[in-house]
Amino acid sequence: MSEENKKRTADMPNIRPGGPRGPMGARLNAERPKNTRQTLGKLFKYIGKSRAVLTALLTLVLVVTVIDIAGPKLQQQAIDTIRFEDGRFTVDFDSMRFYLVLMGIIFAVSGVLTYMQSLLSAKLAQNTVYRLRRDLFRKISKLPIKYTDDHRHGDIMSTMTNDAENVSNAVSQTITTLFSAVMTLIGVGVMMIYYSPIMTLAALVTIPVTIVFSAKLGRFMRKYFADQQKLLGKLNSHVEEMVSGYRTVAAYGREKKAVSDFAESAGKLRACSIKARVCGAVMGPVMNFLGNLQYVILAALGGILMIKFPDSPVGAGITVGTIQAMLTYSKKFTHPINMIANQYSTLMTALAGAERIFAVMDSEDETDNGTKSVSAEEVGGNIEFENINFGYVADEPVLKNFSLSVKSGQKIALVGATGSGKTTVINLLMRFYEPQSGRITIDGTDIRDIPKEDLRHLISIVLQDTVLWNDTIRSNIKYGNLSASDEQTEKAADTAMAARFIERLPEGYDTVISEGGTNLSQGQRQLLAIARAVLADPKILILDEATSSVDTRTEMNIQKAMINLMKGRTSFIIAHRLSTIRDADVIVVLKDGVIAEAGSHETLINQGGEYFKLYSRQSAGLAT
After folding, report:
1. Which position has the higher pLDDT, 336 or 601?
2. What single-letter DSSP state applies at residue 163?
3. Closest CA to 563 of 534, 599, 603
């Protein structure tokens, strides 16, 4: 990134290291999803895309639930084969054997079906999160450059990884849990009323207490889970900054500070996570206490009804087996409520994550109204900047009535102090940003009428900070033209003066570049970037301070490669070292967003203006 771009990013409001306190940060502060219904609707659309898996899963859950509800009924019948008659116990062993074998069979079937249920649940979750991540990544690839400039990269990464994983966990657990809970509540409720309406009413005594407690604790929990996600996003941003900028950290001896800052962020996350988990953990024990209280009430009431009122309507038909069945059903009745309560935190975290995912998906794509398709063969390379006004921030213009005429094949150098607007000119030409007024034309066609894909195929850019992928050298060069042959790739490397060092490597063009290209020198990385641009064969070339990070000797090799690259192409050169642009056809000096002067090196030196001052200062610095 050029100095101007760094300054522009630094000067934007609400920006700090790692990104802005903008929309991505603001939405993390919400205590709960802003629109739960809408978020659920969008999420269910993704889940519904695996309709067959979902149908099979819910069918299995229903069958397992029915088997589970049938269990206490069979237990009651098995227990009631033991009778106390005429002062002695009798046992119907044949009936007991039948019920016990039947229970063994259906419980074994339930175990197999539960295993199949877990497999289908995992498949549904992974299918859903795969589609979410796929669509999210596609969306990110369509976002305007401004979006990634204005949002913390750590937040975007967290949305892709943590938020998607939270949704996956919720889909794998919550759907089956909630469906099973509802079916269990209905089935168990019917069975309890069938056995004893009065005991069923007694079992319901603790339900209102459970609901009120769950609601109050749930509202208290939301704040901590929202804060937890916010702090996690900050921590991701901090880690990304430290890893990508570790050379700077090490160079300034700030390792201890980096560790201290990380420990502080991680400590806040730990404290918030503990509070969130403690609040979530309180729910289970309290629900268990209320369930046990219900158990005691039913056992006592059932015993009284069986012993004291055997002949009354409320006590008739109540046996030891009935009491056992009611006790078991009461546990099963409260268990779904406990499951729902225990899933609440998972569900809230997932909904908050899903809302963040859909917030990115709902962001506006990079606008492109271009309809005039062009090919490289049709383009001459004449460029006009006509009365351009632009600012990254309202009321803070970077370019003011900027006008520049560039002829095909010319080499145009843009110089000026940091923040003068050099990189902004390139950003507008590439349509990374759109001017507030004025227009840019190529061969008389407004670039807003050219599809961005066509426009960017006409232009290649070599940046100061070369981006290389963790792949082979051959693949990195081919990034400029994916359909190029190996012969074309090697020819491009030769033109870029890169072939010599590549061929000296043990594996040549098949050498794998480490992440960030750290196993190559800065100069070698620049030569590969130039080779990539050569292979792209652009009509328009942009060199954005491509030699500012290398030594003078390496710069000479890169200059030779750039001369080869610029032949027959309209070229824009942003250079910190003015000695590298002496042969430019036109040198444009920018100051405070306007063209202070323009002309050849000799003309501007003779004028004794801004360029002369800049050149003299640099020459004096080199001389000393």
Report:
1. 601
2. I
3. 534
Half-sphere exposure of 225 (CA within 13 A, CB side): 25
Q: Which residues pair with 389 in a beta bridge?
A: 437
Q: Cα(first)–Cα(last) distance of the chain, in Å? A: 28
Q: Residues 117-130: pLDDT tens digits?
A: 889 988 888 888 88
HSE-CB at 40 with a 13 A cutoff on CA atoms is 7
Amino acid (1-letter code) at residue 158? S
Q: Which residues fall within 8 angstroms of residue 327, CB to CB, at 6 or more apart?
A: 295, 298, 299, 302
CA 264 to chain centre: 24
- The mean pLDDT of the chain is 80
Tens digits of per-residue pLDDT, 177-215? 888 888 888 888 888 888 888 888 887 777 777 777 777
Single-letter code of the amino acid located at 462: V
- Confidence bin at 583 (pLDDT 50/70/90): confident
Compute the distance between CA of residue 485 and CA of residue 508 in angstroms, rounded to an integer.
Answer: 16
Residue entry with tokens 């390379």: 381
Give yes or no for residue 259 having a pLDDT over 80. Answer: yes
Say how far apart CA 494 and CA 489 lie, in whole Å: 9
HEC assignment per residue over 34-52: CCHHHHHHHHHHHHHCCHH
CA distance 378 to 316: 96
Nearest to 436 by CA among 387, 372, 363, 383: 387
Q: How far apart are CA 84 and CA 82, in angstroms?
A: 7
Q: Name the 3-class secondary structure at 84.
A: strand
Strands 437-442 and 540-544: unpaired
Residue with tokens 């490289």: 376
* Distance of alpha carbon 481 from alpha carbon 470, whole angstroms: 18
Question: pTM surpassing 0.90?
Answer: no
Residue 9, pLDDT above cutoff 80: no
Tokens of 2: 């050029």
Residue 489 pLDDT = 93
Measure the CA–CA gap between 113 and 180, rounded to whole angstroms: 13
Tokens 């969306």 correspond to 139
Reported confidence tier of residue 546, pLDDT bands at 50, 70, 90: low
